[in-house]
Q: What sequence folds into this?
């Protein structure tokens, strides 16, 4: 519940006794004033004095009207009709019958504010009729004509019930509009919080994907090289030393990639010098990626066809799409090192089709006697590949080959020169 609604509810509870008390005091004060005026003004008709039983009867009716007002919150229809019934009972006041309209006006306004006018239509018509009857009967008692009495009754009925109902409808509509606006603001805040949460989750997924791709690739190479070191350290010390140097190189490369990722995640106005040195991987970096894998002991070949370097430099393939292609090759080579150690791998980058760049990584069966690296933890490499492809509009396919190996294929769309907007989204 909003603070505004709580304040309205508190005011409503306070009005349960404040409004009836104030209305009763005002009505009694007007009755006393009317009697005083009637005593000094001969033109005032039919107003009894305090020494008359009719005056005390009117006082009792006014107090009863005030008491009935306390029921408006729970039973507005019955309370409105009960208050209006007091007007005919005050016909003994003559020209001072108007003091009985105070409670009617308050009851009408309170009931309409609490309930829609349509729900109170019958009660409002009944209350107006009772007021009209009371005023008309008073006018006839004072000697007025029939048409005069009817006109006065209808006028008082419309003024005492119709006008307060109209004004209260305006107030109720404004209150409902304010409440609806407050709820709309709350709904917008909740929606904004939900969008922020979705954005945070996406960022977390992206960071997890980057960390996985970086660590998996380099650690797979390190695992392959350390296995070779264990076999070479006794029989081929020189080869073992070379493998140790390669492990160091792989570790340094992993630290560099992790640092680049951390710098990219920092605020835009922080460490601008570091940001300037960050390298975003592209299609042109696939050759270096293959070279590092080959240096780590994998049997990897690279074949390029078409203007791969030109597309990478021209922006026809956006930076996000190029990074996705680079990471797919990186992850595919890491998977081959883990699950098919010693297997021959072939990487092809084909840009001959002007509408797309085809990136394919194929590996054969594991080398004889080589045991795949097993892990109890679930792998997220294929999930990361699929997410990257969906994010950039690329098409990803993967699965076993006929010779028992594995194949990963990514088709990256190329933006046409006449469609600059497509280039910006990739």
A:
């Amino acid at each position: 519940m909003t603070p505004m609604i709580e304040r309205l509810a508190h005011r409503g509870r306070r009005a349960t006794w404040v409004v009836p008390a104030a209305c009763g005091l005002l009505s009694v004060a007007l009755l006393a004033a009317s009697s005083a005026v009637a005593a000094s003004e001969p033109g005032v008709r039919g107003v009894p004095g305090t020494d008359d039983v009719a005056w005390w009867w009117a006082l009792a009716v006014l107090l009863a009207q005030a008491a009935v007002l306390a029921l408006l919150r729970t039973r507005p229809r019955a309370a409105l009709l009960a208050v209006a019934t007091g007007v005919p009972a005050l016909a003994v006041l003559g020209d001072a019958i108007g003091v009985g309209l105070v409670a009617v006006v308050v009851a009408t306004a309170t009931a309409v504010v609490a309930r829609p006018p349509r729900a109170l239509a019958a009660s409002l018509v009944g209350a107006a009729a009772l007021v009209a009857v009371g005023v008309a009967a008073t006018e006839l008692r004072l000697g007025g004509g029939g048409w005069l009495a009817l006109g006065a009754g209808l006028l008082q009925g419309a003024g005492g019930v119709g006008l307060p109902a109209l004004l209260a409808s305006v107030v109720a509509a404004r209150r409902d509009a304010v409440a609806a606006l407050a709820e709309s603001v709350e709904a917008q805040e909740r929606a904004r919080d939900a969008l922020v949460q979705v954005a945070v989750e996406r960022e977390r997924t992206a960071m997890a994907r980057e960390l996985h791709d970086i660590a998996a690739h380099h650690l797979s190479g390190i695992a392959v090289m350390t296995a070779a070191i264990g076999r070479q350290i006794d029989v081929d010390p020189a080869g073992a030393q070379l493998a140790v140097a390669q492990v160091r190189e792989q570790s340094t490369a992993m630290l560099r990639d992790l640092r680049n990722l951390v710098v990219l995640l920092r605020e835009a106005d922080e460490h601008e010098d570091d940001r300037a040195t960050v390298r975003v991987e592209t299609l042109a970096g696939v050759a270096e990626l293959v070279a590092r894998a080959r240096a780590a002991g994998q049997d990897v070949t690279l074949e390029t066809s078409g203007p791969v370097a030109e597309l990478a430099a021209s922006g026809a393939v956006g930076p996000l799409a190029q990074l996705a292609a680079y990471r797919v090759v990186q992850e595919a080579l890491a998977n081959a090192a883990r699950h098919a150690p010693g297997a021959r791998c072939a990487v092809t980058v084909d840009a001959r089709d002007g509408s797309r760049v085809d990136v394919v990584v194929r590996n054969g069966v594991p080398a004889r006697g080589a045991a795949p690296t097993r892990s109890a933890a679930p792998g997220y490499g294929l999930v990361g590949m699929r997410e990257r492809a969906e994010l950039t509009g690329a098409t990803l396919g993967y699965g076993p080959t006929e010779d028992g190996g594995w194949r990963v294929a990514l088709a990256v769309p190329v933006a046409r020169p006449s469609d600059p907007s497509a280039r910006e989204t990739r």
Notes: The radius of gyration is 44 Å.
